[in-house]
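Our consortium's second objective concerns turning raw sequence data into structural hypotheses that experimental partners can test. To show how far this objective has progressed, the report includes one record in full. It was chosen at random from the queue rather than selected for favorable results. The single chain below, 76 residues long, was entered without modification.
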Amino acid sequence: MLATKFRPYLYCFFMSLSMSGIMSLVVSLHNLGWSEHIISIWLSAWRFSFMVALPTVLILTPLMRRLVDSLTAQNS
């Protein structure tokens, strides 16, 4: 079991893994349609998109938290 200090990094990892996988599949199917090679095309696209998604999520998560905090009221 990992220490709780790694929770934000695990969240970013799993969020970017799932979102990049879903989006690369949807875009691959939209652009190419179903074919016998769609799985290999999708996995190649997923690998590339995950390499972009993970650092993007790691960088943007703290910024988006601050933005959301500034747009929402604090409980009193």
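The partners drew two points from this record. The chain has two helices and no strands. Helices lie at 7-32, 38-71. Both points have been shared with the crystallography group to help prioritize constructs.
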